[in-house]
């Protein structure tokens, strides 16, 4: 089944029809003409499987109800006009034929990058378009607002120009936009999550093949809540550190004679750890154990036991903190406090050095967990965290209305 058809008329999107109308109205105010349609793509949290995607490994993200909407109108003259209500500095005017990596600064490089990547791959999008963007995904919170923006633009162009691309093809295009055009070396998980997730489920992702399937995740039916705690900090070393970690993993794989760390079987991990330089061994330990945690999480969810995810989350956090070293005092405090206050498990989600923490809690303890984290942040002198409740939501698609 083509997931594009699976999600195009998703009821979760239809309930957002009002939002689609608002976005279409805003488009009309900006451009003085009607949009051809409104498309949306969600932010995500990753339940488990962090820093595994660029190691060809596994991940288990789910889409958030928070989404980025793009109202769009096809043009025929090669111009690309971009407007976002979040960066309200007017309309950015570009020419599709003149798009090149490094040529577009600021937020516009994400949507322009998608158009560039489509054109570069030979797709006939040279006519251009007018786009208006609004969003309920917080930016820079580790909830992947960048992928939500790219993926909303990708599904809009796919339909405006009748490209008929598959979801994995659109994900690769969006990733290329972020890597080669926007200059951010992200993996593929964020884009696959935004494009392929389905309501009521997490998404098992094999980052090597882009094989994926839904894993039912019924929080409410099991009396559970998934809290997202946005620490509202993003430490500066995030970008450089990410590239360094990625390079470290590639070097370790090469030293082990592997294509990627995904290819190291768990039973060969002890021998590999003794053979590797001291600075690389903990990275490899994280990746191999994290892939195993994803597989185990899928088994536990498939067995109808979402509460059993808790200890895997907390173990994943310890691995990111101690082996991968991408946590920070704020995320560690949120995790420790949430678990001490009764969460079944908690971990940082996203690339690290700040961003958000997820905490799986029984519904009747969720408020206590949230209050404890807020109090702990105040006591530590940190700014207040932002709290969201995550419900597994639909992937990208066209909005009704
Ligand atoms: P994250 O993806 O974790 O939210 P990133 O730093 O990867 O953080 O991406 C955030 C950037 O994506 C913003 O600084 C902006 O350039 C762009 N962006 C995201 N959402 C929007 C939006 N609604 N309008 C304009 N730009 C956006
Ligand atoms: Mg991002």
Could you explain the architecture of this structure?
It catalyses: alpha-D-galactose + ATP = alpha-D-galactose 1-phosphate + ADP + H(+). Pathway: Carbohydrate metabolism; galactose metabolism. This is Galactokinase. Keywords: ATP-binding, Carbohydrate metabolism, Cytoplasm, Galactose metabolism, Kinase, Magnesium, Metal-binding, Nucleotide-binding, Transferase. It comes from Streptomyces venezuelae. This protein has 13 helices and 13 strands. By secondary structure, the protein is α+β, with helices and mostly antiparallel strands. The chain has 2 domains: 3-216, Ribosomal Protein S5, domain 2 (2-Layer Sandwich), CATH 3.30.230.10; 220-390, Alpha-Beta Plaits. The strands form 3 sheets. A 6-stranded mixed sheet has the order 5-4-6-3-1-13, with helices on both faces. A 4-stranded antiparallel sheet has the order 10-11-9-12. Strands 2-7-8 form a 3-stranded antiparallel sheet, sandwiched between helices. Mean pLDDT is 94; it is low at 1-17. The structure holds adenosine-5'-diphosphate (ADP) and magnesium ion.
């Amino acid at each position: 089944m083509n997931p594009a058809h699976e999600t195009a008329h998703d009821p979760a999107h239809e309930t957002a029809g009002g939002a689609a109308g608002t976005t279409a109205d805003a488009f009309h105010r900006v451009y003085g003409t009607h949009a051809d349609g409104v498309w949306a793509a969600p932010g995500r949290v990753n339940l488990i499987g962090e820093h595994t995607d660029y190691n060809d490994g596994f991940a288990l993200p789910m889409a958030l109800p928070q989404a980025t909407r793009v109202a769009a109108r096809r043009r025929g003259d090669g111009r690309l006009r971009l407007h976002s209500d979040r960066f309200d500095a007017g309309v950015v005017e570009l020419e599709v034929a003149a798009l090149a990596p490094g040529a577009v600064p600021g937020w516009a490089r994400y949507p322009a990058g998608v158009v560039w990547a489509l054109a570069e791959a030979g797709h006939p999008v040279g006519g251009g378009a007018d786009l208006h963007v609004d969003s309920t995904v917080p930016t820079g919170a580790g909830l992947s607002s960048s992928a939500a923006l790219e993926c909303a633009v990708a599904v809009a162009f796919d339909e405006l120009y009748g490209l008929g691309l598959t979801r994995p093809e659109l994900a690769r295009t969006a990733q290329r936009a972020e890597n080669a055009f926007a200059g951010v070396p992200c993996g593929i998980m964020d884009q696959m999550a935004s494009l392929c997730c389905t309501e009521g489920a997490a998404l098992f992702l094999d980052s090597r093949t882009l094989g994926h399937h839904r894993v039912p995740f019924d929080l409410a039916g099991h009396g559970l809540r998934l809290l997202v705690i946005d620490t509202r900090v993003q430490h500066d070393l995030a970008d450089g550190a990410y590239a360094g970690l990625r390079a470290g993993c590639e070097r370790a794989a090469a030293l082990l004679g592997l294509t990627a760390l995904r290819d190291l079987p768990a039973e060969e991990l002890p021998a590999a750890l003794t053979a590797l330089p001291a600075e690389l061994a903990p990275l490899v330990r994280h990746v191999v154990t994290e892939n195993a945690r994803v597989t185990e999480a899928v088994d536990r969810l498939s067995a109808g036991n979402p509460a059993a995810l808790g200890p895997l989350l907390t173990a994943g956090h310890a691995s990111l903190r101690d082996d991968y070293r991408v946590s920070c005092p704020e995320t560690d405090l949120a995790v420790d406090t949430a678990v001490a206050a009764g969460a079944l498990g908690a971990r940082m989600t996203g690339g690290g050095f700040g961003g958000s923490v997820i905490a799986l809690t029984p519904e009747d303890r969720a408020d206590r967990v949230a209050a404890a984290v807020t109090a702990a942040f105040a006591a530590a002198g940190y700014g207040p965290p932002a709290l969201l409740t995550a419900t597994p939501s639909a992937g990208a698609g066209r909005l009704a209305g």
